[in-house]
Fold:
Amino acid sequence: MSDRVHGWVAAGPAALASGMLWLVTAALFPDGTGALLLIAVLAGVLVLAFGCGENAMLRWYLWVRRPTAAQTATLKPALAILAELGGLPAGTGVYVTRSPVAPQVQAVGRRSLMISAGLIEGVFYGRVTAPETAAMLAYAGSDLTRGHTRHQLAAEVATLPWQLVTIVSHAIGSRSMVIPGVRLLWRARGVIGAIAVGQALTHHGPPGVAGPISAAIITGLVVMGYAAPISQRILADRHQALADWDVALLGLGDPLSRLVARGQAGPCTIDRIHRIRSWSCLPAWH
Structure:
């Protein structure tokens, strides 16, 4: 299947659940306030989908900021390498996360990169070299160039209810999974779904289409529950390979392979490192 199809499958559960949760939330508000809420959410999603309001979203929702003068000076050698190689799209904005997390770079929206404060500290103290930093920036910049994150911020707003539910579910699940039988029930969710489908089809009520429709909805939810993680993994692997290819073509394959070996640029596997080095057909920066 194409990336577009996998993208729809991967986003299906979150989109469907969020749509239902937005409707339920809107129904709780009186006197048309709920309708105004839905209109505001839809307007925000459309604005972000067309690339407007990205800077405000980054600052107020993702809580990032522009790099300080000292941080900009620290990143200057890596940015100079990328400017020479053409490794970033024109107009790319650089933002810094406020929390000192491990060295990482993430593409966001249409033209933004989020750099962790930990990466800048690593560069400043010599733990990460300028070519390695350039490789990390180019790796994330590949997602911007190929449009993999074009509608990410719009999706963040649209699926906000699902994200809140996921956070709560993970908090509860981390504790409930230690209870005997809970993990088995989760793995057997397909069987539970099949039982629900059977009950919907054999419901002893007035004849009509309610039973088949309910069965179809339940079947779709169960199938998406299994298909979405598979599509997410396939997309992640494809995007990773494309980013590795783009970085290697810039001549930064050797620095990227060192980052991968240290676990600072995605999953570390011997096959991936070998693939990156085999693609490094241009003179590498050392």
